[in-house]
Amino acid sequence: MLMIYLAMLENEQDKKKMTELYEEFRYDCLHVALKITNNMAMSEDAVHDAFLAVIKHKEEMFALTCMDFRKKIVIIVKNKCIDLMRKNKFSSYTYVGDIEYELASDDLPLDIQIIKKDEFERISKYISEIDEISRLVLQMKYIQGLSYKEIGEALGMTPKHVDTRIMRAKQKVRKLMEQEGIGK
Fold first, then answer.
1. Closest Cα to residue 124, out of 147, 94, 153, 148?
2. Where would I find the RNA polymerase sigma factor 70 region 4 type domain in this sequence (predicted)?
């Protein structure tokens, strides 16, 4: 991929700077994208799109300090992931629906397992109906098991902001359930 980016640049100084930035941050970007999308192909596309955005705004991006560039590229990658998820209609429902619902058969009777699975699927339906950021934070917290700090780093938020987002997302799901007479 680096060769594609370098071909888009005109002078050697820009090519050198792009090589340094790409080599230093590509794995961090891919890691962030994987946390968000949980899909390698989509993550690679998001990172590719992010570095194309860097080239498009090279004057601004190349002037940033290393730490500022890292902050900026992480935000760009996060936004590219969200854009790709929207474009592909890739929702949290897809993730939840793909998860194997595992309950140890030794621990719970079969009828309780069936009830739990039904509840899981019903809640998944409501999660699929809320906005993408809310779905994303719920998925990252409860499906991927990330901490507030890890979610915050991936999405460019403080842990407190992540906590608030998760609380509001759960309220949205509860409200949808209550509208259908469930959970009252």
1. 94
2. 121-172
105-148: pLDDT as tens digits: 445 555 555 666 666 677 777 888 888 888 888 888 877 778 88
For a pLDDT cut of 90, what percent of the chain falls above it?
11
Over residues 13-28, the pLDDT tens digits come to 888 888 888 889 999 8
Report d(CA 174, CA 28) in Å as an integer. 35
Task: Spell out the domains of the chain, with CATH numbers in brackets.
Answer: 2-87 (1.10.1740), 92-179 (1.10.10.10)
Within the chain, residue ranges assigned H as helices are 2-7, 12-37, 40-56, 58-62, 66-87, 92-98, 110-127, 132-138, 148-155, 159-179
